[in-house]
Amino acid sequence: MDEVAQAVANIKKEWDQSILQIQEHIKSIESCGTSGRGTEEANSLPRLNGAAQDALALLRSLQFKLDFLAQQLSTEEEMQSAQLTLEFWKEQYQTLHSSLRNANLQAKSNIRKAAQEERELLLGGGEESTIRRRNLQTKVGMTSAAESITESLRRTRQIMVQEVERSANTLATFEESTGVLRKAESEYKGHRSLLMRTRNLLSTMRRQDVLDRVILVVGFIVFISAVLYVVSKRIGLLYLQRKIAAAIKAGSAREIGKEIPGVGDGMNGR
Hints:
Helices cover 93% and strands 0% of the residues.
């Protein structure tokens, strides 16, 4: 299993744990006001809602992480599985959000009933009512202080969750920028290699051009030499043919003179 797949598995495990936590918070909110301590439970309701909202924020963060990692999975099958899981998570998140809203409505109804019962009891006479009022005031003060501290911690945690989400967004942007830079570097290397090949090709073409010119010059010289040689040979042959023809003619005239003495003597007398 590669790092991305392992990260996806860890996110799924964290999602399941967060689901269990928020379900516990929803149950606690829904049962708020049913124990007969309406005022105390009314003061604890914001704390429970804060914890539930933190859990929902964590679920949103996990959805974002899964959506980001799903694009980096190595196989198409894993990507499709991650997308299906993400769709299921969105539906589950909406269901939990609706359950939380219904639980708050139920809790408010329970708290109103419990508060009404407490008012009726406190307005009654007797020592029991006095002791109960004192205990209630003490518990209310302690609960208010605890709720104030809890609310501060909840806000701090919410800020930390927001910072984590912002850091995740920054990291995603950084990863995207890194990918773009790597792609640009790869393209630059490709263009550089292409330029080197083009340069080598131009050098080869220059050498080939010089070689072609040398071959043309040498061929032209050889051709001219051959033409001159052929012309000189032709001129020599013509000259030789003329001499041979003249010799043949001269030999023929002597033979004729020998055969005809008068002609030969006349020619000699001349």
